[in-house]
């Protein structure tokens, strides 16, 4: 039987781990559990390496306590939220692999081969739009008093991972209606918890992505790639907004490679395309690094000094997927 409530954590000293570069859904999942279980257990939120800007804003607004790269010493159990590959722990991966205590996992990504926790300690569903949805289900089954802050966290994770409900289903709206009412905040008020001003550098990154873009046609799909200096996810989103079906943006700096991919939602649903499954997980076979994420938003972190070969491989893998569905030639537009 999989994990069906959080009572196994009662009375324990628990370290809740987000993935490296924690996003809103990951931090919000940890925080919702922290705010709900802190009277039953001694909870610490651990973040490997760093938070993204929106998660940092949420932490500040809701006063979410967290530690960057904490020691695992003294904890009875680890609870991983919003990831299912140990590589996603960044610099804490080795600590996790050598940890001998109990391990638990809550996640909504596609299933991976790696077994991070015993089956009885896992609650996972790739059908869930966000990990906070799964956390909400567990909190209700545990029959704990859920605070307004916890409800706000759950709602924040849903908003961000559904891309403001562009990829939501009826169950997402049902859950959102419940948690929004109990959080006591309007939709605008919830968004304000994690919103950050788009600064000059982000706007420049998006404009550079458009300036440097390479455009490919595969069948009837437009695939766009661009070498940007930073804010690769924003840049990929910008290319989708201006017409690409699939976009990959990335950069190479000091031996580090980072790529973000985005997909037009209607095209993704029509073709049953999955960025993580069809592109980024497969990149690991060709380049050193690790890939993962969601169906419509995923990424790759690796090592190397040249970004172009990896971006072109992303195009090739996308074209191979399309070619299985329809007769398609790959053509670059210059």
TrEMBL record:
Query: Which branch of life, at top level?
Result: Archaea
Under SUPFAM superfamilies, the record lists: DHH phosphoesterases
Q: Which Pfam families match?
A: DHH
Q: Which InterPro entries match?
A: DDH_dom (IPR001667), DHH_sf (IPR038763), Oligoribo/pAp-PDE_c-di-AMP_PDE (IPR051319)
Domain DDH residues, every copy: 13-158
Protein name per Swiss-Prot or TrEMBL: DDH domain-containing protein
Organism in which the protein naturally occurs: Candidatus Iainarchaeum sp
Lineage, broadest ranks: Archaea, Candidatus Iainarchaeota, Candidatus Iainarchaeia, Candidatus Iainarchaeales, Candidatus Iainarchaeaceae
